[in-house]
């Protein structure tokens, strides 16, 4: 159930990005929206950004920049186009209820 909810959230974040598509950056950013398994069967991480969306701030600068952060929070050159945390906040209650229902069903059987 936890894994299912994690993938449900990741899918919704990719859909939110598609709705915001205003630049070629969203292709790699959308592809970076993933679910990673944690240390046990009860831990999953919904992630975006990282290696797929990191590049130099300016060519030759040697300073890394993950443009997923600029996309989510904005920069001095572009407004925020949130897709990650607002999607989580919108889905949090439903996901928690689905998890609670699954736990109750197992405990009551």
What is the chains' assembly state? single chain
The chain-level structural class is alpha+beta
Radius of gyration: 17 Å
Poorly predicted ranges: none
Helix-strand string = HHEEEEHH
User: What count of helical segments does DSSP give?
Assistant: 4
Would you mind describing this structure in some detail?
- The chain is built from four helices and four strands.
- The two termini are 16 Å apart.
- The radius of gyration is 17 Å and the shape is elongated.
- It is of the alpha+beta class and 109 residues long.
- The strands form two sheets. A two-stranded antiparallel sheet has the order 1-2. Strands 3-4 form a two-stranded antiparallel sheet.
Any descriptors?
109 residues; elongated; two-stranded antiparallel sheet; alpha+beta; two-stranded antiparallel ribbon
Quick recap of the structure?
By secondary structure, the chain is α+β, with helices and mostly antiparallel strands. Helix content is 53%, strand content 13%. The mean pLDDT is 90.
Walk me through the topology.
Elements: H1 2-20, H2 25-32, E1 34-37, E2 44-47, E3 54-56, E4 64-66, H3 67-73, H4 85-108
Antiparallel strand pairs: 1-2, 3-4
Helix pairs in contact: 1-2, 1-4
